[in-house]
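Morning!

This is the sequence you dropped in the shared folder:
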Amino acid sequence: MARPVIVGTRGSKLALWQAEWLRSALLERFSGISVELAIIKTQGDKILDVPLAKVGGKGLFVKEIEEALREGRVDVAVHSLKDMPAEIPAGLAIGAVPEREVPTDVLISRNGLTLMEVPAGGVIGTSSLRRAAQLRHLRPDLEVFPLRGNVETRIRKLDTDQLAAVVLAAAGVKRLGLEHRVTEHLAADRMLPAVGQGALCLEIREQDPRIGPMIATLDHPATRTAVSGERAFLRRLEGGCQVPIAGYGRIEDSHFTLTGLVAAVDGSRVIKHSLSGPAASAERIGVQLAEMILSRGADQILKNLASATR
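The structure's back. Tokens below.
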């Protein structure tokens, strides 16, 4: 019997849902194979009392899994694409991007209030600088509280930390069957999502003759094209969790529209623009939009943030 396909994953309930989805998809497509999960604890799972922006950002959730992939201890890694740094390490590749789940954010409040109904002075919990900056821009009269932990932990802190509400990725809430807790869906024109939000990344070793063709069957071309444009935007800005950057691309009739945002951490300034063109030029559009936003003031915001974190 052929050796099993080993899937590297984090151990949170959401990460395990994603890994089980991948296991089921592979077993459905290929007879005679077995798939096993290898749970790997990342730095992001260990450091829960410090905001991500202060301890290294996106790579904290993928580094140890990528090391296992490079060393051959696992065959494929499944990540939330929004956790992936803009650059993929040498020797590794994105083998597939499956069809995207809903990419936006949701508000879950303690008393059933929408974002605009939360009284002044209310405390909103979020783990993301991107969300925090947009919340402060929309509601400068609210307090934003840095919140870490898995989805269930953050929802539980509504009561234990006396928060008015928390903001989470809609995809994770849906995958965990917690949609009944949602108070309000935050449309992208109000809360622009993170680059890659709602999409999974199936990472493999480059040119792996056994695993590459199997994983490629799970690729969704439209999703991959859209997130490629978003990631080109992020890469040009050299951004990560330490910077309030958002980007969301949509494809309609072979036409790609990308909206990007860079904000000051305190929400006092938000630079947001959109650019459209042929879907085949998604990455070029991402770079052009980044250049446009940089030229309109984002370069100064990014310089200020860089000097503040030194």
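Headline: The chain has a mean pLDDT of 92.

More detail when I'm at my desk.
O.
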